Amino acid sequence: MKIADRIPIVLYGFGFIGRMLAKSLLKLKHYDVVGVIDINPKILGCDIGELLNIGKIGIKVSNDPVKVLSERKPKVVLHATASFLDQVFPQLKVVIEHRANIISSCETLAYPWFRYPKLAKEIDKLARKHGVTVIGAGVNPGFIRVVRRINALKRRPSFQRKIGLGLTLDEFRELMSKGVITGHVGYAESIMLVGKVLGRKISKVVEKQEPIVRNVKVEGIKGQAVGYCGRKVFVRLEFVASASVKDQDAVIIDCENYSYGL
Fold first, then answer.
1. 3-state SS of the chain: helix, strand, coil percent to 5?
2. Mean predicted lDDT score pLDDT of the chain
3. Residues pairing with 61 in the sheet
4. Cα(23)–Cα(243) distance, rounded to whole angstroms?
5. Which residues have C-beta within 8 Å of that of residue 238, sequence separation ≥ 6?
6. Is 97 exposed, middle or buried (0-12, 13-18, 19+ CB in 10 A)?
7. Which domains does the chain show, CATH number per domain?
8. Cβ 163 vs Cβ 255: under 8 Å
9. Distance in angstroms (rounded) separating the CA atoms of residues 115 and 103
10. How far, in Å, CA of 211 to CA of 104, rounded?
11. CA 20 to 30 Å from 90, out of 36, 157, 245, 247?
12. 9-40, pLDDT tens digit by residue?
């Protein structure tokens, strides 16, 4: 395949997820990584090949999105920087204005109308104006995973920090109250997305999270969310990220006295 036929891609965010994406893309013949954007001062100016331990490939990390997008003219930007739409909106806006399509791992972008209806409308307006598509994707929040358990020790350090791994209970509560750590993000978006796909109107979502404590230290987090249609429970989600559980994904469907576990 000729280089001209390959899809030019810019990675916006070069942390754990961004590097996983880069490793996969560099093995595929249909895509061409033409630029990388990140604000981490420790990696600015570094060749991404060296950061991936595969040798120099000629693409360096930049903290100037306008310069990268203007010069490289990507068709797609793979965006992986933060979990909350209000935090990443300026990043998405500059990408849209440079007429690049976006696939983002931002959890709250999976169903932005729930928490950020004004920003959802603004993104839709901008995307239509510039003729591009914006999609919230990634493994979290997931689409129809009702029960999810993951071993937190196998996850990236930023995720471990987000759930408070290793903190005391008091430290956990203090940092959660200040918004320094967030726990898992995306319960409600998952429920709203399931309702949208199945054609059901979700009237209310109730979310809660609590730390899992062992030997006075937080070893994980347990979260639950329930989506209601009127007064009836329609979707129930459970999420556990802990240092002492095995990875598991499950879907349980109850329908006319039949129960299916996948």
1. 35, 30, 35
2. 88
3. 36
4. 27
5. 146, 147, 148, 222, 223, 224
6. middle
7. 3-136 (3.40.50.720), 147-261 (no CATH)
8. no
9. 19
10. 28
11. 157
12. 999 999 989 999 999 999 998 999 999 999 99
Question: Tokens representing 208?
Answer: 């809660």
- Count other C-beta atoms under 10 Å from residue 110's C-beta: 24
Residue 136 structure tokens: 């919230």
Largest interatomic CA distance in the chain: 60
Q: State which amino acid sits at residue 165.
A: L
Closest to 57 in 3D by CA, of 81, 32, 76: 32
Q: Do 202 and 184 contact (CB within 8 A), yes or no?
A: no
Of 13, 33, 170, the residue nearest 83 (C-alpha) = 13
User: Closest Cα partner for 103 from 83, 82, 78, 128?
Assistant: 78
Q: 174 Cβ partners below 8 Å, 6+ apart? A: none
pLDDT band at 245 (very low <50, low <70, confident <90, very high): confident
Instruction: Supply the pTM of this predicted model.
Output: 0.65
